[in-house]
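Review session, final week

We close the course with one last complete record, chosen because it touches almost every idea we covered. It is Protein kinase domain-containing protein, a protein from Rhynchosporium agropyri with 602 residues. Go through it on your own first, then we will talk.
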Amino acid sequence: MYTDTKSSYDFVKEPVLSAEDPELMSLHRKLRIQKDRLVSWGLEWSDSTQSPDIDESINKAGLSELVGSVMSTIKEILAEAEPLWQSSKKRSFDEKGSTSEKSIARKPSLIVWDKSRFQDLVRDLTMSIDTLYDLSRTRQSPRKPTIKSGESSRSLARSSAAEEKMFESTRMQTPQQIDPKSLIWPRDLKTIQAGTLAPAKSGRQIVFMRRPTIRSSSRDTASTTIVPVLLEYAPYNSIYTSVGITPSMTRFEKLFAALSQSYLSSERILSGLLSLIGYFEEQDQSRFCLLYALPTNFGPADIGSPKMPTINFLSDLLFSRNFEPSLEVKYRLAHNISNAVFELHAKGVVHGNIASFNVLFFEPQLKGRVDFTQVNMRKPYLTSCDLFSDNATDNSDSSVDPRTRLHRYPLDPRNTRYGRFTSESKSLDLYGLAMLLLEIGLWTSLSEIFPTAATVPDNPAGALRKLAARCGTLYVKAVQACMKAPQDELTQKARPDVMHQKVLWKVSKALDTCCAIDESSDESNEDSDDLFELSAPIKPLRSTTSQQRMVSDSKPSTLTLITSPPVVSRTEKSAYEKASDSFVDRPRPSWIGRPLPIGKFH
């Protein structure tokens, strides 16, 4: 197993010299470094009294299954990297060749050099070898078999800090850990009715968190503020629990860097995203528990009689056949969700799980049954980034949610092993955004739009015609720009970063123009930074049956204009931030306001 994998690395022998492209030399050097790391890892497991093959030692440690899976991944990466390596060497040779040499007819190479893809392969290879070193640390300092719920596996590995420091260059700063004892679970409070709480097995719920208040003077006595926060579970493959190691935290570290409090303190705002406070781990459940600060209008809670904020999901609203928001509210909803996706991409984070059931709305505690007319659809929040699905195997109990299959591109690596995409491709996010905009425009779930399809057709002409009739051709162009992104990346019409920037321009320009009809826009008051708190205007659908609904889809919707002035209330800071020093004059996100391409919109 190890010997075969190591032999796959034989093509990396001599350095490639390219004075014209120092970045190419750097990539080759990184690949050779990973080869040396793999050989060094094998030496740790080898026994001088036995054969060079280390499979027996790995089998005795009970890690043959996991190591075999990692080795298989490494071989696949190297199998794809080798032809790219050779094509880069040929490219370097051509750069140094004379004009006469270049004029000689040569057989064209079957593999075209792709720097972006080679970077992805080197990054994936580094992560896989990191996992092997994690296994070695487990062998040298095994974890105790009984661990209390919420105790972090990363904190238990601190005893080998000197060894961990050897590989710090491949990792980002560890996210902040939260003590689970600082949480107050609503189910333990007698003053809260059980009917107002989320189901016990729900992936999200509201909990209360104790947080020390920052005082302006050291003479003031310390106090604790209790604030409501969103608790979200991020499961990972249970095989990591069985062998006692932590899965790769690379994505989580990127997400924390993008959404942490330090990001907010730099006087920037998050558009449609919640601020990530920290996490703790429940190893017995094979999951991480992420804590997010709630959005506006949720201040410190009186634990004696707390009010539970309610969570509403866009997926539930789409299934509510009796109500559909007005056209301007749809535009604003689509615009703000797109902003959230572009904000993540600007920070180097790929969501990987864009779907209607991951778009949330938060409202104060309501009396009685849920009333969708009270939901402020202009303020959506995108949650549940995909953090650990790449670590899952075919027989994993943490399999991908089947509801996401229609929202994902057919060649998404989370759906199939066959394809050139990596899970870090922004094009896959853009495709998911296109599906979400399609659902919002038709106000119907994808499973109803394509009831008999396992995947969305490459050219859903019928659905796009209905979308144009209800939302206009400009909105359709935004959907099409996002939908074509994966195919454009495959055909290599442009570099992925250039192509993604063009999609951002097109979608932003189209949705900004659409939102011009929204008189209740948050940006309508140019002289004030205050945001309006508005309830979404709702209009009843003319029919509640699916057959009647499909007929009505061919007719354009009637605009419902707001005739009464909106009720203005100042937007408050998040509950978690209110306990700390505040900041003011939050500017718009960095990607907003970039120059748009001049010319006719395509």
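Two points worth writing down before the exam:
The chain is about 40% helix and 10% strand.
The chain has three domains: 1-91+115-138, 174-213+223-307, 316-390+402-520.
Good luck, everyone.
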